[in-house]
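As a warm-up, study this chain.
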Amino acid sequence: MDKRAELLAPCGNFDCVKAAVNAGADAVYLGGRSFGARAYAANFDNEQLQQVCDLCHSFGVKVYVTVNTLYKDEEFRELLPFINDLYVMGVDGLIMQDLGAIKVVRTFWPDLPVHASTQLTANSLDDVKEFEAMGLKTAVLSRELSLQEIRHISANTGMRIEVFIHGALCVSYSGQCLISSVLGSRSGNRGKCAQNCRLSYELMQEKNIRTEGHLLSTKDICTLPLLPELIKAGVASLKIEGRMKSPEYVAGVTEIYRKYLDLCYSSQPYKIDPEDVLELEQLFNRGAFSKGYLQTHSGFTMMCPTHPKHWGVPAGEVISYDRKNQNALISFNKAMVPGDGIEIRTKDEDGTGSYLNKACGEGQKASVNIQGDIRPKQAVYRTYDKRLMDKLKGAYETITRKVPLDAVVLIRSGEPAELTFHSDEFSAHVSGAVPTAAQNQPLSIESVSAQIGKLGNTIYKARNIRVDLEDGLYLNKSDLNTLKNYAAEILRKITVNSFKRVSEKIEPDTNIKEKFAGKKTLSVLVCKGEQFEAALLSPSVSMIYLDLVSFLMKNLKEICTKAHEHQKKIAVKLPRIWREYIRENVSERFEECLSSEIDGFLISNSGHYHAVKDSGKSFYLDFTGNVLNSRSFAFWKERGAESVALSVEMSRDEINALPDHSCTEILAYGYIPLMVTHQCPIGNYAGKKYDHIHCEKYGHSQPYSLRCGKESFRLETDCKNCLCTITTSRPLDIREDLENFKVKTFRLNLTHENFEKTEQILKKYEQILKAENSEKTAAPNIYDKMIL
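Now compare it with the structure written out below.
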């Protein structure tokens, strides 16, 4: 049988670690006090991290540490010593996003396994192939992939493939969400997501409200029914989401998935007990579960627009409500106990809750003191199950998990008794007291085996015991106990210490030389022919990017000729999401580009790079590539990028502080993409999109938008590929601020602008670059603020 898939549990504090170990996790993932994508979890200091490593390694449980955010240059001073500490502790791997930081780890700690975080948006075989070429060991795939795509990737790579199997589901592709940082300066790419997707929105059709609710809030996923298929697909690591969750949640979810993962490898039929699903729902759900994207493309059935928090499970119905005394008479369909928490969904509130102070049997009625706009026939949910929580608390109070071992005992006359313990990977050999001649009752193989097998006060349990014993000898029980306890402790220390490493010397980076931008230019991304024609006429434009999806390239040869005649370079922007079906949809045009006279490709990620690196064409990195520091910039420049567009999450000061501006680029004009998602609000709430790929609004022309309080958002749809990009409602425009940036190139991203509007925008930027414009006061823009 092939090596079994790993069950990977989330841990936000030490109790969660104990819960995961007891529940049967094969590995845990967690974060330090800094540098992880869950900054608001309790997390672990270095002393606690060492304790976690020692505890987990004692039980054969792997420890992966999340170092999976984007870093600012000044943070590397603390990041690199922290990684060295993790290396010495013996962690089993780092989960990482920042490509510059990954390059540093691969340089200084080449034997420390690195996992490509889901924040790297690995959604294609090209992505995984490139990560493999970089020496990474595991790829955490985007949650949007289907079983078929996972199977295809796993079959064509030597990397370990990791997939999320349970928990919260981001509505945006991970690593491609800027809404939290743009609206509130809290970056999801830096572990400080403000959960804007769980807020209430209105879907607007022109000025009319089409519908409202928590329109971007997805249900949690539960893949219990698909575990056998995931294993057949070659998934090596099955990941439970939830580093912000309680130890009880970790214990309950891990235990249930352990049960069914073991069932997958048994000869028993795979059948799910509905009570286990109910327990998972009781622990946390948002309007039941979905199976995510594994068997469907997207759609309304994956969304929970009515209530974004924990739903609990149905527990009864309101019979009547006494408003004066604030008492609800409730008929319960479940047996309830004191301490159970309930919630009633009301029309104008997310929910109003209370706790029971007395027991109530199934089918019985009880009066509960509760406030709110409560009315008869409203549903009652149990959001806290006290009996379940009390049971799960015991899962982390003490460690009950045991490590199986084999024992060999050797007792010879005149020689110290010897004992060897063998676990699956390690062994310990110790010697003890010298036996004496028996006066009354000599040792027997049975008595020695029974005494050595009593390992209750250790982390071990005896699997096989072999005793080699000379006749007529005696050792008292305390000598045998001392021998076995000593052997157990030595085995534990050998196991734990085997993971620890010797500190590496970190050499400072002294090769960074200051380089200046020289003459500043404009680059333009065009979606329409008239935009292209206007860009040709601008003397300040040095590069024109054609959008492969939206630009109709009827005669690419003529386009290239025109551009080159006007001394412009021409490059084609690849689709930001590079899944196999999207690549197939653009394959004909992509192949035409490869054989054309274009100068290169505008890429967003490692998958794009893998697809074009041997094409003989240049490549240019887009700002969606998440370059936030000089090491990531250098990473792409060393790969051969002709230009590197910096993240819009960098401030003006951070941008100017970069030592090398020879090929830097920033977004100067255009709508900022905040999310890219398959959960198109237009399709889900106006187009009757359920489990199929296309909706009734396919190719729509009506202007739709989202509104949240005073903020509005544009919805850009790519209907053929069933993608929706949610953008700012107004374009970024920093023309009055150009002189305050050291960068080489200013990018103008055009969308719906016609020829005249494009020409007008270009002329204003030209005037600034030529210092012909007298405006000095720059309007506030995104580069003013420092992102947390």
